[in-house]
Structure formats: C-alpha cells, structure tokens
Amino acid sequence: MTALDTRTDTPAVLRFPEGFRWGTATAAYQIEGAAAEDGRTPSIWDTFSRTPGKVRNGDTGDIAADHYHRVDEDIALMRRLGVTDYRFSIAWPRVQPTGRGPAVRKGLDFYRRLADSLLDAGIRPVATLYHWDLPQELEDAGGWPHRETAYRFAEYADIMADALGDRVATWTTLNEPWCAAFLGYGNGVHAPGRTSDLAALRAAHHLNLAHGLAARVLRGALPGSAEVSLTLNLHAVRARSQAPEDVDAARRIDAVGNRIFLDPVFHGRLPEDLVRDTAAVTDWSFVQDGDLAAAAAPLDSLGINYYSPAVVAAGSSESPSPWAGAERHVRFEPAPGPRTAMDWPVDADGLHELLVRLRDELPGVPLVITENGAAYDDYADPSGQVKDPERVAYLHAHLAAVHRALADGADVRGYFLWSLLDNFEWAYGYSKRFGIVHVDFATQRRTLKDSARWYAEVIARGGLAES
Ligand code: IFM
C-alpha cells in the first residue's frame, strides 16, 4: 500500500505542539472477531450478545472486523494515515481465558505480533487492559461487584506487563469504568446486563481498586520509561438553568458520573456528596481500609473520552437508570444543535469545558484525548467513495476545541480518533459506523472514508488548516 499523498500548500492555522501524538483507537471485542480461536473463551459480551433482545439485529462480535486475521492490513492502513500512535485493547479472555492462572501462549503471541508490527511501522503501541470484555467465568463468580475480581485484574496486568512490557509504551488500565459499572450493572444495557444500583456502585468501587492495584503492578514490572494511565468518559454536565434544583441535578450527575472515579483515583477519597446521595442504596461498607489509598496510585496521564455534553434539570429519569442515587432527582434534557447517528448532540465546547476543568482540578496531570469521534450513516457510493462531510466537520470542531484548551493552558499531549474501523458498537451491533475506514462486513473490504484522508492531512500538517 502506498502512503497517502498528504502534500499540501496550506499551512496549519491551528498548529499543535511539536511531539503531539496523533492516534486512532479501537477495542478488542469491537474489531477482532476470532471469538473462539486459539484458546479464547467467552467474555461477558459473548454471552450478552447471544442473549435475545440485548443487541440490535442479534449481532455479535464473533467475526466483527476480522482484525485478528487482518492485523497486517490494518496496520498498513494506519501507516498510510501517518498516525504516530495506535490505541488498542487486549481481550482478557484471549490471554487468560478463565481470568485465573496461567496465560495462553497463542493469545499473548497475537498481541506481541501486533506490538512488533506497530513498532516496525513506526507507530507507538498504546494498550488498554480492560475495554469491557470480562472473562465470563469471573462474572459467574460475581463479576465487578465482587471484590475478588479486582485482584484477578491485577494478576492479569502482571501477565501482560511480563509479556509486552518491552514493547508497549503506554498502558491504560481501564477504559470507561463508568460504562462498565453503570451500564453493565446499573441499567443493564451493556454486558452483563444486571440492573441493580447497589451492584453498580460496588462495581465502580472495585474497578477503582482494580485500577490502583494494576497500576502498582505495572509500575513494578515495566521499564521506567513506560507510562501508566486510566481512561474515563467524563461527563460534561450542564444545568438547564441556574435554578438551585437544576444546579443540584448537575452536581449529582457530576458526583456519580465523574467524581466517583476522579476523587478516589487522584485524591484517595470518596466524594462526600455521593455517599450522601446514595445513602438509601448503600452505606459503602464494602470499601475496606486502604482501598482508596490503593486506588490513588500515581499516574503519568489521564485519558479522556468525549463525544457530547449532557444537559440536566431537576426531575426524574426512566427506570432502570444508570444514575444510582440520582435517578429520582435528575431529568436529562435534549441538548440543542445537530446530532450524530447515535442521536448524540454535536457540541465541541463540552470538550473544551472538560479540559479546562481538569487543567484547574488536576494540575500537573498530562491529559490525552483517548477517544473522540462520531457515527454517521456512511455508505460507499457507486464509485466506491465514502463521503462523510459531517464527520469531518465534527472532528474539525473538536480538534479546534482541543487547540483552544491548549491555548488556555491545558496540558493535552495527544488525540486518538475513535475509531480506525467501523466496528461492533455494543448494544447497537453493526448498525452504527464510527470508523474513518469503512468496513463492508460481508466482504471485510476496507475503504478509506473522506475523513481518513482529511485526518492524514491534519497529521501531516501538524494541525488544522482553518480555524
Ligand atoms: O464504541 C465506544 C467505545 O467502545 C467506548 N467509548 C464510546 C465508543 C462509542 O460509543
């Protein structure tokens, strides 16, 4: 494959700092396929996607984008785009099928080969240990609401550090623990599909603990140059009005959506208002001495996934809700403006708001946008082209927001576009396309969308040609 012609006479009007990382991101269950190959056993997502009614059209990740068999082609695509970094996740049940005990060599070999090929292509591997595919056996033993799962995760982190520590530059423990806890155990729209506020809060705590235990294990096992991180999908919450009830609704969502992770991980404490808000659900006695200190392991950066903001007002949410302790106090209002195919509002200011907030609240913590992107109803036209001007506009606006945050003093080190490939979009199956590379799931043919060409130019130019 030849490199894309990204020569351009147009200089960057919004130039990003030297050394800024330009990446694409994916996750194992969403692209790999090969669900029963080489010793991989079911994860909670294999089970959930097979449960009637849980995933649109009954789609599963059995084949997905067949990345397991097409990894070379996919790395060649990234090389054409000129990305500096690639963020992928490791499927826990592919390397440690039961979530306990020794690793499976073939599973480790796949990720070793992936990392080696990336390095050969001049692309920095950025690995996430957990992007939601818990081995089913661990869910059967209690899943994330069960404390033991955190210790199992630390053991798995140790296995991976040993196997890939010499190749992977940045390690992210968890991706979006909010989704794992509150969509998985709170409203049940994600695997494993449980609906219990208590289970969701327990899961959130054990994910924080798992993160901290794993971060320490990684530090002990990895070379000093390796970076350890965590990725959160922080909610850019806005109150509908300045009425005290609406402002309080925003506070509640901030507590159970953001500070439930930020406070333990960066300050070793639970938010007091969250404990009050959830008093009818739990007294938090599952938090043991030392847990919060363990969660607060020092990190090299914080990853932020951002798609859209949320507008809230006093009211109540539908049941089951993922907002433990807030559901009877908060109503989500439609945000104004255009929407993506997910029906998510397009509002890049939310990203800027989050970045300047973190600049102020977490001074000294480098920030990385580990996911940002949009789904649209893309198709290949008769000439084989995939035109996605809305995605280009979305990405442009969000990169401009990142640039504005940099100018305002936020320490943003990189941007990972979600996603490299069209993929299995969880409960939406294959009905939503987030890729900058179109995948024809019948043939597995990959086609660069216009947004991929646009992103390659941005990378080559080191920024945006227009403000
Ligand atoms: O596809 C997901 C990804 O797995 C996690 N962050 C949000 C994306 C879009 O929904």
From TrEMBL:
Binding site for substrate: 30, 131, 175, 307, 418, 425-426
EC number: 3.2.1.21
Gene Ontology BP annotations: cellulose catabolic process
Positions of the catalytic residues: 176 (proton donor), 371 (nucleophile)
GO cellular component: cytosol
GO MF, any single term: beta-glucosidase activity
Catalytic activity: Hydrolysis of terminal, non-reducing beta-D-glucosyl residues with release of beta-D-glucose
Listed Pfam families: Glyco_hydro_1
PROSITE patterns according to UniProt: GLYCOSYL_HYDROL_F1_1 (PS00572), GLYCOSYL_HYDROL_F1_2 (PS00653)
Enzyme class: hydrolase
Family listed: Belongs to the glycosyl hydrolase 1 family.
Keywords: Carbohydrate metabolism, Cellulose degradation, Glycosidase, Hydrolase, Polysaccharide degradation
Stated name of the protein: Beta-glucosidase
Native source organism of the sequence: Streptomyces viridochromogenes
